[in-house]
Amino acid sequence: MPPPPLLKLAAVTQRYDAVAGGDGLLVLDRVALEVASGESLAIVGPSGSGKSTLLQIIGTLDRPTSGAVTLAGQDLSRLDERQLATVRNQQLGFVFQAHYLLPQCTVLENVLVPTIVCADADRRARAPDRAARLLARVGLGERTSHHPGQLSGGERQRVAVVRALINQPQLLLADEPTGALDHASAQALGQLLVDLNREEGVTLIVVTHALELARRMRRVMELRDGRLLAQER
């Protein structure tokens, strides 16, 4: 019998009420999804199809109108906001199109920000060594004392990836991670995400318009008319 999925979505629906009444806007329509531990998945679809909304629900940044999201066997709908914050800090990592690095902090300081509120004392103690190892792995071992303004766009996004991985999350969520990069930097970051998915054993879900990035993932699904559909490779 195969192991249970790391992530499971059952009939996840998101509807935004219309200001003047009516049925409102149906963004997600009974979305079902299972993602195995260690898998890589790309979710594609046109602008406005609800890709980012779906990722925000998976990442506990938003709650669905109805349906259930289960992460590592835990029903996220049963958790309060404090418990969800712990899930985001310890089990999830986020990479966005904008890097959101703190300009006044060094590369190393930026990477270590998520560890400040980490409840695991051992993990906090190991974090500087892990940060140094990961920064060296992504080619930034000599840039730890630099500030974001001294880095290229691709380098800043690599710092954001390391920051997302610092607390050893089970699931890494990337929302258009290459959207602000030139082609060469986007290529390099896409390959880095694939490599880290394998090396770190972290499950990876990428929302992207870039089909070149999507095809690097083991599985590609398309969000269309609120439904998530498997896409032929």
Account of the protein in words:
It is built from seven helices and ten strands. It has 233 residues and is an alpha/beta fold. It has one domain (39-63, 79-230): Rossmann fold, CATH 3.40.50.300. A hairpin with a 2-residue loop joins β9 and β10.
> Strand arrangement, largest sheet?
6-7-8-3-9-10
Counted beta strands = 10
- Radius of gyration (Å): 18 Å
Instruction: Write out the CATH superfamily name.
Output: P-loop containing nucleotide triphosphate hydrolases
How is this structure best summarized?
By secondary structure, this protein is α/β, with parallel strands linked by helices.
Features:
single chain, 233 residues, alpha/beta, Rossmann fold, six-stranded mixed sheet, four-stranded antiparallel sheet, 7 helices, 10 strands, 25% strand, globular
Question: Mind sketching the topology for me?
Answer:
Blueprint: E1 7-16, E2 25-35, E3 40-44, H1 51-58, E4 66-71, E5 74-75, H2 81-90, E6 92-95, H3 107-112, H4 121-137, H5 153-165, E7 171-175, H6 183-200, E8 203-207, H7 211-214, E9 219-224, E10 227-230
Helix pairs in contact: 5-6
